[in-house]
Specification:
The protein contains two helices and 13 strands; from the N terminus they run E-E-E-E-E-H-H-E-E-E-E-E-E-E-E. By secondary structure, the chain is mainly beta. The chain has one domain. Strand 2 and strand 3 form a beta hairpin. The longest helix has 11 residues.
């Protein structure tokens, strides 16, 4: 059995659907497929005695159809600053091998295209979020302004990266991803962001 682990921090994602992405309501994607890039920044985390504070992780997901009816192809990117024990812990957690919410998401994965150590620049300021991996990914989203300037939020959706947390709805201002034969150039489409708390097993 995996060691006990816990993570807290912030996350965001963007995809090729219009805002707000209907996949989180178990509906089919706009373009018969969904292409998603997700980033996490861990403020505080550990697995057993291994500290995971301050690391960034990214995941590219290709779903060639309805996300609940097909198997996903994914590529995982781990912060290159992590030591071998820290990298192993991050891999176990985010690949779903250590239980918790990622094990649930892992049940939808049909193919892991790669697990890569990389420089991952994750930034969060106000309603803006950005993620950059040199020569691979360049993503930026901005939260939508609701009535009276309030955040536009979604809570309790049946398919989500962060269970139990309201997601702020945004749009991508730029979304570029090129790796594993996948070439995505997307803008003005869906984005979500929120804080997260995960634990396992």
């Amino acid at each position: 059995m995996a060691d006990n682990w816990s993570l807290t921090g912030t996350y965001f994602e963007a995809c090729n659907c219009e805002a707000a992405c209907q996949c989180v309501f178990l509906s089919p994607p706009d373009a018969e497929e969904c292409t998603i890039l997700i980033g996490w920044h861990i403020d505080s985390g550990k697995m057993g005695d291994v500290s995971l504070d301050g690391f960034n992780v990214a995941l590219a997901v290709h779903s060639p159809g309805h996300m609940m009816q097909v198997q996903w192809r994914v590529a995982l990117y781990l912060d290159e600053r992590a030591s071998q024990p820290q990298g192993d812990a991050l891999t176990q957690i985010f690949a779903g091998q250590a239980g918790g919410h990622f094990a649930v998401l892992g049940g939808h994965i049909g193919e892991v295209l790669g697990v890569t150590r990389a420089t991952i620049d994750y930034q969060a300021e106000g309603k803006r979020r950005s993620l950059r991996i040199p020569d691979i990914a360049d993503l930026e989203i901005e939260g939508l302004a609701g009535g009276g300037g309030a955040d536009v939020t979604i809570s309790g959706n049946p398919l989500g990266i962060v269970p139990g947390e309201p997601m702020m709805v945004g749009r991508s201002t730029h979304f570029s991803y090129h790796d594993h034969g996948m070439d995505w150039e997307i803008s003005a489409k869906n984005g979500f962001y929120s804080s997260f708390t995960y634990q396992g097993p």
